[in-house]
Sequence to fold (202 residues):
Amino acid sequence: MLGKRSIGEPGDRLFECVAIGASAGGLHALRTVLSGLPAAFPVPIVIVQHVEPKGDCYLSEILDRATALVVKEAEDKEPMHSQTAYVAPAGYHLLIEPDGTLSLSLDEKVNFCRPAIDPLFESAADAFGPGLIGIVLTGANADGAKGLIRIKEQGGYAIVQNPRSAQSPCMPQAAIDAVRVDKVLDLEHVASFLARLVKGLS
Fold:
């Protein structure tokens, strides 16, 4: 079941989901973030990493070995659970339905990508509103910036990797240029900030 935890910043808001987008350099960035989170992380995480549309993708298996969380490839109509990270499969957009379940789509590419970050962020923002944390990590294009705008419009919380700590700074810089984000963090500080942000974690 989805977890809800009040956070220490800002105010007494309840967060229900974390959505993360990454592109070039994303494997290292995602491993760094997920490996720093405790097994008891009380809300689900959904991830879009730009991957080739064809061929096998072992991203979920690689990430699962790097973290105490459960990491799995997302399935259509799947309910989300806390302590679990869901990765978009190659060739499909990953969306969040209004009831909080996962959805896979073969709609046209966005920002030349499928999966793309913007559709995930936008659907998650509509589903969770102020209960969503959106995170933009390293990448070589502007995917995620438009979605982060929607997250902020819906009252969500926006975190962006410091471009100076990104293997590919274009994507985090585009997000910073597009919207007033809540936090800009060096990669090595993202996990610890999330752990402090969500109450009830040691």
Observations:
- Helices lie at 26-35, 59-64, 117-128, 145-153, 170-178, 187-197.
- The chain has six helices and eleven strands.
